[in-house]
């Protein structure tokens, strides 16, 4: 296995699920040459494997995951969170002793629990989650600079070895990401509010507007200006990925939704009773948050 100070982080990196996130890692690895010497993509879709090769994203792309991971120094699972457990159960037994297992799933309690039964003492596991993405999916959607200046959240477990953790830290740093470490439970609460709830709201508001357009047979959606359009970008995200995330992070998401509904109710009351001060205060908080994200180059 290659070192972390210079050269490549891993000799052979196998990306399982070379969609938006997996193919962005492959693009980064190809372009900079500092992540791995050999790149292999595994996908259960032969069409995705063919496309990966057409795009020149990997040295090899195959549907035979078991054979592929046997050569790997690192296996990165980039499949939807609902598929992580089954994929790990199939692939981990075939990994070399000492090879590192990692994932990029958007929820961490459910993913670490789903992978736990497949773990081996000689295969260190480092759960990770790059906080970057777009509404697009598949190998064509990846971007070489997707992770540039974005957070990558690491949720190491008790059994995660310091060496494997350092290798995954180095890999994501070389993808351009900034790192934070936290527990899986804390991760899921934070992501419920900053990622999962906003998606839930976007899917819901688009549905509400569409219902209204049907009911009134009017041009509601034709007149949508940029405020509504910003919601539709998020609402265009992949249904399978988001179904899995909502179900996997059920508890934290429902807690945040409950809090949000209380705050929305308070706003409704302020509007009903003409409480201008309350309304201005809430809007000013929103502006402050946007300003601080721009200052930190996160927007
Ligand atoms: N899209 C985002 O914004 C984003 C951001 C950070 C993390 N994530 C996480 O990254 C993971 C991948 O998301 P994505 O947006 O890249 O998805 P994607 O749909 O673009 O790619 C997923 C790939 O996994 C393959 N796949 C599905 N099930 C499989 C299986 N059982 N075996 C092998 N391959 C399989 C699909 O064919 C597809 O090529 C998810 O866990 C998601 O939660 C997504
Ligand atoms: O930018 C987007 O379109 C995204 O949905 C990216 C986003 C997010 O909510 O910020 C989505 C899911 C992730 O797990 C991480 C990032």
UniProtKB/TrEMBL annotation:
Listed Gene3D superfamilies: 6-phosphogluconate dehydrogenase C-terminal like domain, NAD(P)-binding Rossmann-like Domain
Positions of the Prephenate/arogenate dehydrogenase domain: 11-299
GO biological process: tyrosine biosynthetic process
InterPro entries: 6-PGluconate_DH-like_C_sf (IPR008927), NAD(P)-bd_dom_sf (IPR036291), PDH_C (IPR046825), PDH_N (IPR046826), Preph/Arog_dehydrog (IPR050812), Prephen_DH (IPR003099)
Top enzyme category: oxidoreductase
Pathway, per record: Amino-acid biosynthesis; L-tyrosine biosynthesis; (4-hydroxyphenyl)pyruvate from prephenate (NAD(+) route): step 1/1
Pfam families: PDH_C, PDH_N
Matches recorded under PROSITE patterns: PDH_ADH
Domain of life: Bacteria
The entry's keywords: Amino-acid biosynthesis, Aromatic amino acid biosynthesis, NAD, Oxidoreductase, Tyrosine biosynthesis
Reaction equation(s) it catalyzes: prephenate + NAD(+) = 3-(4-hydroxyphenyl)pyruvate + CO2 + NADH
EC number: 1.3.1.12
UniProt GO MF annotations: NAD+ binding; prephenate dehydrogenase (NAD+) activity; prephenate dehydrogenase (NADP+) activity
Similarity annotation: Belongs to the prephenate/arogenate dehydrogenase family.
Protein name per Swiss-Prot or TrEMBL: prephenate dehydrogenase
Upper taxonomic lineage: Bacteria, Pseudomonadati, Pseudomonadota, Alphaproteobacteria, Acetobacterales
